[in-house]
Amino acid sequence: GLKLSGVTFKDSTGDTSVSVNEVRLNPKLSSLLRGQINLTDGLIDKPQVDILVKELPQKAASTEPEKPSGPSAPAQPVALPLEKLALQLREGTVAIRTDNPPQRLEFKNISSQVDINPLGQASKLSFAMAVGGMGQQGDVKAEGTVTPSKELTLKGTSGDVQVELVNLKLEDFKPLLALAGQKVDIAGLLNAK
Fold this sequence. Notes:
The protein is mainly β. The protein is 6% helix and 56% strand. It contains two helices and nine strands; from the N terminus they run E-E-H-E-E-E-E-E-E-H-E. A hairpin with a 5-residue loop joins strand 1 (2-10) and strand 2 (16-27). It is globular, with a radius of gyration of 20 Å. The mean pLDDT is 86.
């Protein structure tokens, strides 16, 4: 198998950094020779991502009306040469910060187990994390089983997915919206099951 320890990355501006304690992958050589991906017992241990979003530039007001876009060609399904993927993410952290105004959104204790099987067979996913900004944190949990029929699209896919959102403060998501280039004033508490 493949094992990497102490993996780090920092962009040239210092605004984004990534570190991972350990990455472990066990590819099946026979599958790779057939052009298929078969990874079992994969592990990403303690990944940490830190992103600083600098102040958004002010957009100049456009005097031209927006032109409607014409119809686009239908998207083609993705064909991955995937035979099997079993991957665990353990104790991940993602922090998104803004400098003006200073805000911070953290996704902590991210854990996930993904077991993807060939098309037509059930695949499983479980995911949990704590989410918080400058105050109290909330929780996100999801788990499910899905069975795509012939291709990786929702059409023809059956399954059961359950998602639980507990005490998510919407104002804590402002740094994430800033990362997407949006300045939105939101507030409220989100709970859903």
